[in-house]
Amino acid sequence: MLKIRLKKVGRKHQPSYRLVVMSNTMRRDGRPIEEIGYYNAITKIHKIDIEKVLDWNKKGAQSTETVKNLLKKLKK
Q: Largest Cα–Cα distance of the chain, in whole Å?
């Protein structure tokens, strides 16, 4: 099963995440199938390709709860 989830790439106490599509059996920082955006938790800067998210959802990938909440905030 494919998941759209966050991959941590920041330093300690400076979280930064990439929005990625990967298998649910891979570890959190494993190799993704595709990177579709990024989110900086401290500065709230983000760049997410919504079209790719919707395309992966049509292909059967499921978003995690955190990603769903993040996308809801972006739509407002």
A: 35
